[in-house]
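Quick one, T. Sequence first:
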Amino acid sequence: MSRHTIIIAEAGVNHNGDLQLARRMVAAAKAAGADYVKFQTAVPELVISSIAPKAEYQKETTGSEQSQLEMCKAIHLPLCDYAGLAALCEDEGIGFMSTPFDLVSIDTLVPLGMDYWKIPSGEITNLPYLRKIGQRGERVIMSTGMSTLPEVEAAVGVLEQAGTPRNQIWLLHCTTQYPTPPKAVNLSAMRALETLGCAGVGYSDHTQGIAIPVAAVAMGACIIEKHFTLDRNLPGPDHKASLEPDELKAMVDDIRRVEQAIGSGQKVVAEAERPNIEIARKSIVAARPIRKGEILTEENITVKRPGSGISPMLWDSVVGTAAVDDFDYDTLIRI
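Structure tokens:
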């Protein structure tokens, strides 16, 4: 039985603060086959100071006129909208998640009964935040962009000491750059995260296209998170590094195929290939007409398809024996 990778369609703030657009994103994520659609919940004034600069990618995608705070205030939904989105997800049959970015947003999401708390890379050094989520004792997925292994271990320790056992914490390798160039991905870092003994490791992707997250699944990622948008040409900081709905579906489909292809790890004959054994393998056959009693030699026998006769692996046992019958050219040898 193939494993099931949890696929999180990251809507983030790609709704641009438009609730109707957010609702359409729920339907698009469901249609693409994702397990969860995830938003970002924040009170911008509690997350960003008035002097906080924009990231370079944010300047490239939204200009430098607005501050980071002004930009985020324009694209975040009010806290009261998330309960409705959670209810819509339940109606649509897709899991609801949202990443809180401040303590008030954590309180807002508590009643919504999420399967997992999602901690973003930027909060991995925020002790009060980590402690508040850890005190809930519920399942946690934590992205680890911009961090070293000791920093990740320290964050896991805070969660654990607060009340969330290590076997309820999943770690996502991540490179926090939008978009991330492939040479900066370092998928092998998932192996380092595995050494922390948490519930599992996955990958939060910011590269363009779908090849890298699919590769991550082949390397053992049990969770994939990927930004998506209804239209990459929409204004906003994250659209350019996001998949459109048809691309999201292609990623989901490819991941499901890779899951099936990974298999058990045992080297056995697949049932699908069993009928081809006789077709593709070879047997010992007569290289010319052979009479009964004639000694079989390397001159009068050879190896050809089909594989329904004596295996060529028994060649040394056959050579030097007497023919048990007459054999026409190209017929299977019997002994």
